[in-house]
Amino acid sequence: MGEAAAAGAASPRLNILFGVTGGIAAYKAVHAIRGLVLEGHHVHVVATEAALRFVGKPTLEAISRNPVHSDVYEGVAEVRHVALGQAADVIVIAPATANTIAKLAMGIADDLLGNSVLASTAPLVIAPAMHTEMWQHPATVANVELLRQRGATIVGPAVGQLTGSDSGPGRLVEPEEVVEAALAAVGPGDLAGRSIVVTAGGTREPIDPVRFVGNRSTGRQGVALAIAASRRGADVTLVLANAEVPAPAGMTVVPVSSTAELQAAVTDAAASADVVVMAAAVADYRPASVAEAKIKKDSQGDTLALELVRNPDILAELSAQRRPGQLVVGFAAETEGDDAERLRLGREKVTRKGCDFLVLNRVGWAEGFATEGNSVTMLNSAGTIVGEASGSKVSVANRILDLLI
Ligand code: C5P
Description:
Layout lengths: L2 H4 L8 E6 L5 H13 L3 E6 L3 H4 L2 H8 L15 H8 L2 E7 L1 H9 L5 H7 L5 E5 L3 H5 L1 H12 L3 E2 L3 E4 L5 E5 L3 H11 L9 E7 L3 E4 L2 E3 L6 H12 L3 E7 L10 E5 L2 H12 L4 E4 L6 E3 L20 E3 L3 H8 L5 E8 L4 H15 L3 E6 L10 E8 L4 E8 H12 L1
Helix pairs in contact: 2-4, 2-10, 5-7, 6-9, 11-15
The chain binds cytidine-5'-monophosphate.
């Protein structure tokens, strides 16, 4: 049994054995593997020979960042035909053909994937993909039922356009669903029973009915935090301000726009939360007055002066009001290029805001915003560096959550 399963918790770094079998939908498996890797998991692909006719080994190796195995007679010295299954926290097979499903139901081990499944006690997630007739054939129906009774999770198939001109049940579910099912199968995570409030996005301060003062935050890092916390079992409330990414499922999402709205929503949710993470870029200033009608340039000269007034510092207020045991985490995006100077600014900020942790990252015209990855330094309330993380925004999110735990 893998490390995480042995600890009885869904660690963010799972050992995932990803079986790919010979169907055209194997190309979609590539996206699911990539999704799991970007979340920080170790993915070991076991491909059947037929799968490798659809997707090349180099593709699977590059995406999984690990060697791809397919032959029972390779790696014999390390007893690979059982080692891979034994080390897995979860086994995912996507796409699973009718043939593989039949073999799994009968316990046939004539290839590396069959051996690995038999040698494992990890949860098994099967995402079938085949033509409707094959899916509805009594043999497949009985095999799927048998696997279900033994505890396997069957995801899909989806209904829709198949490889040819026909359509019906048999499509592989979308890669995100494969990822969700794989992670859900591992069981309650290490944040189960905890409630977390995350703010994400950037606030917009209205100038008039059509204009606002805003910032370039896309909400990606905050949303990634909310998703990672939810996957690890937390009860998540996401206060989402004007994000460019869709609101995730599986959590309470409170859409807001201005700082005043964000403040009301986060203060309300924080009352019963164990952790509050202020990842949103909150405007420090707002227009002193909001025009009732659109400001016309004819009524202005060549310049237009906008008077701004200070917004409340929500993070400082939440930190000051926090209950014993409640953690408040702030973010600091700094354009300062010098590492030591950025750290000094971060230390100053953590003291000023009074939060338990501060996640410091560098932003600039081409850094931090609207990018897939991020690189952060985490400080505690004393200003000591307690962690560093870089990589995809979800893997950075998981490292931040590790620290909170
Ligand atoms: O002072 P600065 O804006 O750099 O601080 C960033 C942190 O403070 C973020 O966690 C942000 O959500 C929070 N903040 C706030 N209220 C403000 C401004 C920032 O809570 N008015």
